[in-house]
Amino acid sequence: MSKKDRLKAQSEKQLMLKKELERQELLEMEEAASKSSRAGRKLRKRAKNLDNIITLILKFLMILPFGYSAFFYGGIFIVGIVTEEMIGMPKRIAVFLGVGAVLCLAGLILVFFSRYILQFIFILAGTASYMYSALYIISETQQRLETNYVSDEALQQLDRTYMTYFYPLLVMTLLSLALLVIYIVKFVKKKRAKKREQDNAPVKSIVE
Prior knowledge:
Layout: H1 3-82, H2 91-111, H3 116-147, H4 153-156, H5 158-166, H6 169-200
Helix pairs in contact: 1-2, 1-6, 2-3, 3-5, 3-6
């Protein structure tokens, strides 16, 4: 073999080695990108699962103030007003309590169907109706305590006791608002991600 042939063979061998190294580097880069993509998907999945768990906890927490304040004590006060055991309380107060409880119940049901905007509207309206009656009852009780002498210490604090019956419903409203905010944040993030995907998408050639 001549010197020229040997140099040519050596050059071809170096070229093949270079191509093999480039191919290996490309494979390594693709594998690293694939691993990064899988890690990113796992991270997003974990974050999504965490968000779902937090959302589910908030939903179940809403049941507690509703059951305690609107369902249990709301029901007691409605019966007390309708049967006139609570002397001097207008019937409309029982109506507003009932309407408020029903609207909050509707909102609570909508929460578990993930209708976050609608559930907040129902719960906000229900809370407004319920608290109208609650504040009326508390105000009337305070006035009666001021104008009448009461020797029983427990009865002297009756207005504050009523507050502990009615005000927990506000916790339900706050949780409803928190769920709405979470939904809006997720919605905005999703829209932005979709827009970035569209902006970064390859543009087709006019010739094509």
